[in-house]
Amino acid sequence: MSKLPSDVNDQTERTRVVLIGVGGASCSGKTTIASLLHTILPNSRLIHQDDQSFAPPSGLIPIHPKYNVPDWERAETSIEWPKFRQFLQNLKAKDNTPVDYVNHEGWTDSVAVSQETVVHWQETLGALDAKLRQNGSNIEWGIVEGFLLYWHPDVIEPLDIRLFLRGDNKTMKARRELRETYGGADGYMWRDPPEYWDNLVWPAYLEAHQRMFIDGNVNGEAIEPVPTSSRDDSTNPSSFGGPVANLIVLPAENASIQDLFDLACNKLETFMLRLLDEH
């Protein structure tokens, strides 16, 4: 029997969209972790911040004034922020219509995560998800990953779980050098010019993230902002790239992908158990 309109409305009202943020430096493993979470979570979708739906056309990327190459790293110009903010707001409100989203699923590299681990977390989190549904909470999961995910306050605000994969310069650079090309907006294929990491990638990462950490040390401990932080005012320039409330830092520099995946799933399990306790 098909549902009556009132039944459909009741189901919509009981549905909650939970957004899981997975941010971090280039080559920290964030895309792989996000893809794995998407694999094990029922009723989930994966959103890449740098997909062509949210990245500017290649012709609009500014040329670095010193190094004379396209600068894809600068926070202010690497993402079409109004479009990305609106997409997340509509997703959170269960309205998926305003943005034509094109997902680049499948771009992540294959990695050594055991099938046993995947099955364990698929069963564990799937069982918790089923209990939540039995209690009347129809969860739709959105996994949002990006290298500038924690820079804009209006993007951070709707994220329910905030994972940050912390990586050091040497390790992330070595991983990046193993990649040959990147796919960008409008089908543009990108290859790093010589010294691109040292001249643009890492300096831009520091500029966008160092105020999130104590003494500006991006390899250290994150700052937990006070409730009155100016970060609540998205029109205040000082609120961009500042401390992030409830940030969960995962040490990508010394951990395998499987270790990071276990850590992320443990945090997600804790979140789901807390939701069950609320009912």
From TrEMBL:
Gene3D superfamilies hit by this protein: P-loop containing nucleotide triphosphate hydrolases (3.40.50.300)
Family annotation (InterPro entries): P-loop_NTPase
PANTHER family recorded: URIDINE KINASE (PTHR10285)
Protein name as catalogued: Phosphoribulokinase/uridine kinase domain-containing protein
